[in-house]
Amino acid sequence: MLSGCGIQDIKEHFYTESAKTELSKLCNREGDSKLVVCNNFEAPDPERDLTIDEFREIASSYLDSAHYEYKSDGEGKDKYSYMRPDADGIMRGDCEDFVVMIIQRMVMDGSIKKGSVKWIYGKANGDFHAWTIIVIEGKEYIFDTVSWFGRPLQEAYEEYDYQEIESLFSY
């Protein structure tokens, strides 16, 4: 069953169930069970609230084009992964892999406080997609494979026709 980025031809119910199944598989995989999205972690509290500019600077330190490259799981396949740099130092993955990585990195380095992040599944321009919403300075920002460094949520929703189906994870 598929739940990943860019898929149009499956029912929302199957998509949502597949997303939950793939998250469960990720959390049961050796080495990944302690990921933030698996609810098995102790994260430091941020020392202070970051501004959006500070947040973007941190995100850009590991999300620029020298460190991340979009890579689909392939036609007929779907596997959620925590992106780790390969031998070339590049992290490769699709939309849900991006979400897992951004949540993990930002929570564990103390950039996100509890109650301010969610992992959303839905559609963007008619294709199934995953993204994260992070509250920064009291305003919601979207971080995904389209908006790597955060974009005001309402602005992104209007431009790319995002449609939320379900929140898969909140922290």
Structural class: alpha+beta
Let me know the average pLDDT: 82
Unreliable stretches, pLDDT < 50, 5 or more residues? Answer: none
* Separation of the first and last Cα atoms: 27 Å
How many distinct domains? Answer: 1
Tell me which CATH architecture applies here: Roll
Tag the structure with descriptive keywords.
alpha+beta, C8orf32 fold, five-stranded antiparallel β-sheet, 7 strands
How does the SSE layout of this entry go?
Layout: H1 12-28, H2 52-63, E1 68-70, E2 91-93, H3 95-108, E3 117-124, E4 127-136, E5 139-143, E6 151-152, H4 153-160, E7 162-170
Parallel strand pairs: 1-2
Antiparallel strand pairs: 3-4, 3-7, 4-5, 5-6
Outline the structure in words.
- With 171 residues, the protein is α+β, with helices and mostly antiparallel strands.
- The protein has a single domain (12-170), classed as C8orf32 fold (Roll).
- It contains 4 helices and 7 strands; from the N terminus they run ααββαββββαβ.
- It has helices at residues 12-28, 52-63, 95-108, 153-160; strands spanning 68-70, 91-93, 117-124, 127-136, 139-143, 151-152, 162-170.
- It has a 5-stranded antiparallel sheet, sandwiched between helices.
- Strand 4 (127-136) and strand 5 (139-143) form a beta hairpin.
- The chain is globular.
- The two termini are 27 Å apart.
- The mean pLDDT is 82.
